[in-house]
Structures are given as C-alpha cells and as structure tokens.
Design a protein that fits this description.
Blueprint: E1 15-17, H1 25-54, H2 62-91, E2 95-97, H3 98-131, H4 136-139, H5 142-168, H6 184-189, H7 197-231, H8 235-267, H9 273-298, H10 300-331
Antiparallel strand pairs: 1-2
Helix pairs in contact: 1-2, 1-9, 1-10, 2-3, 2-9, 3-5, 3-7, 3-8, 5-7, 7-8, 8-9, 9-10
Length: 333
C-alpha cells in the first residue's frame, strides 16, 4: 500500500474525505445561521479597520499599524475555516483536494502563530509608550516597527514550513481525514508514518514557542506598566494607560481562552463530539468577531476616524444630487 501511494504527495489531484460533523438537522441549521452572519461581520469589520487605518495618515502610528496587521491575520484565519465548514454542513460535502487541504491547514496554523506574535509586539509597544514615553518615537521607529512586523509573519511562516515539511516527507496511506477540517495533525494521521516522535516534539516546540513568547511579553510588559502607573500621580495619564492596556489584554485573553479550550477538549475523551466540533469554529469566530468590536468601539481614535470616513464617503454621495440640482436651477434661469 505504501508503494502505491508513495508519490501521491506530488499528485495535485489527490482527494481526501473529510470527517462529517454529524450534526443533527436542528443543530446544523443553528450552526449555519450563527456562523454565516458572524463570518460576514468579522470580515467586513476587520476590512473596515484596515481601510480606516490606511486612508488616515494621522493613524499611521505603530499601534494602529499593528492593529491593521492583526485584522488582516484575522481575515486569513476565519476565511480558512468558516466558509468551507458552512459549505460542507449545508451540502453534506466532505471532499477536499490535496492543494485545498494544504492551503487550509497552512492558513490556520499561520493565523494561530501570527496572532500571538503580533499581540506580543503590541504589548511591547504599550510598554514603551507608557514606561518610556519620551523615547517612544526613537525606539518605535518605522524601521524597527517594520522589522518587528516582518519578524512576526516570517517567523511563523518559517516554523510552519518546517512543520509541514516534516509531515509531507511521509507518503499517504489513507484518504479519510480524522477531522472535518485540514490541519497538520489530521494530515499526519493519513500518512504511512510509523514513528512520529520528531513531529510530536517539533509540534510541542512551536506551540510552546508561540504561547511562551505571548505570555512572557504580556506578563513582562504589564508588570512594568502596573509599576509605572502606581508611581505616577497623573490620574488622566493613568486612566488612558489602563484603557489602552485593557483593550489589548482583553483581545489577548479571548484568544488564549478560545485556543486553550479547543486543545483541552480534545484531551478529554468524555467530551461530546458535537461540542468538540463546534468549538473548532468558535476558536476562529469568537476572537475575530470580538477583536474589531473591542478595538473599533472601545478605542476613541479608531471610532472617530471610522465615523469621519463614513461621513466622507456618504457625504460625497449626498453632494452629487445637490450639485445636479444647482446646475438644473441655473439652466432654467
């Protein structure tokens, strides 16, 4: 069997069979009703944040540029999971080609790692802004900021590339994936690999690396921020610091809780399979829907710039008929 499928890794026409979510009619209907509007909301609101930051030069600051990258990464993550899952639920379609499977798995892993690294950089940015305000622009220069952003994306791509190389070095022996979506673990389980020690060790390493960097950055930054806020007597500065930090911390905790819940549920065999499958969707839906709400509605600058952009767009549309009426009035005189 191994000889027959030895070269399937290079066959772009290879088709895998995804495991069905096995949701009852009512639960499947509710899942689609919730997931589809949530996906549309997440994509539109994150795009709105990206457009708002891009078209407002006053927002070309480190915090907003990092927020723009976070929103872009959120779109990648939720788009990799939700549309395909909704399609499979609605039409009971469980086939996926090899390129589609690898692409979905790649973007899901990219989403997970890059989210933690970008949030780590955002924590560092808040630390410099509050603890070293006079040196903020000198430290968080455009060159340094771009370097941190490039490090976040490229490091995740590099580590994920090695992860998939370790998996795809094995030929396929099966085509039935053990999950309703593609990820590295699911793909590894359909290979002919008998010894996956290296894969498991490396998988634990990159998981520990991403979460370790995130937790260290947040704990270190917020410890220093708390000490600085306790020392200052300026109540206005202290209030602003707590507000900006609270927004970032909320986003970080939401992601950590949702991702940890997925991992823990799979570790307990007594957990109902339906709960495990729905939590896979919750992992990408909840953070990606709440992030733009938290940053868009709770951050005054973002909210005000969104209103300005909206008024500018719709205001131009309202001016068009007004101008035509003026022309018509002049011609009738």
């Amino acid at each position: 069997m191994a000889n027959e499928t030895k070269d399937t890794i290079y066959d772009l026409n290879t088709v895998f069979v995804l495991k069905s979510m096995n949701l009852s009619g009512e639960i499947a209907y509710i899942t689609v009703i919730i997931a589809l509007p949530a996906y549309i909301f997440a994509v539109v609101s994150n795009l709105l944040i990206i457009v708002t930051v891009i078209f407002n030069r006053a927002m070309h600051e480190p915090m907003y540029i990092l927020l723009c990258n976070l929103s872009l990464n959120d779109i990648f993550g939720i788009s990799a999971m939700v549309p395909r899952s909704i399609f499979n639920i609605m039409f009971e379609y469980g086939l996926v080609t090899f390129p589609e499977c690898i692409l979905q798995a790649w973007f899901l892993h990219l989403y997970g790692g890059t989210t933690l690294l970008i949030l780590s950089v955002m924590a560092f940015d808040r630390y410099i802004a509050i603890c070293h305000p006079l040196r903020y622009h000198a430290i968080m220069s455009k060159t340094f900021l771009l370097g941190l952003i490039a490090f976040s994306w490229l490091t995740t791509c590099f580590l994920c590339f090695i992860l998939f190389c370790l998996t795809l070095r094995h030929p396929f022996c099966r085509k039935d994936l053990p999950s309703y979506y593609c990820d590295n673990v699911s793909i590894l389980r359909v290979t002919c690999a008998t010894d996956i020690t290296v894969n498991n060790v490396y998988g634990l390493f990159i998981t520990g690396f991403f979460h370790g960097v995130g937790l260290f950055s947040v704990i270190f930054s917020y410890t220093c921020i708390i000490i600085t806020c306790c020392k200052t007597k300026d109540s206005e500065s202290k209030s602003k610091a707590w507000h900006t930090c609270g927004t970032h911390l909320a986003v970080f905790l939401i992601y950590e809780i949702s991702s940890s819940a997925v991992v823990l549920l799979h570790r307990f065999p007594n957990t109902p399979p339906t709960v495990q499958r729905i939590m896979g969707l919750v992992y990408v839906i909840v953070p990606n829907c709440l992030n733009p709400v938290i940053y868009g509605l709770k951050t005054k600058d973002v909210k005000s710039k969104m209103k300005f952009l909206k008024n500018r767009i719709f205001g131009m549309n309202k001016l068009k008929p007004a101008k035509s009426e003026q022309v018509k009035a002049i011609t009738t005189m």
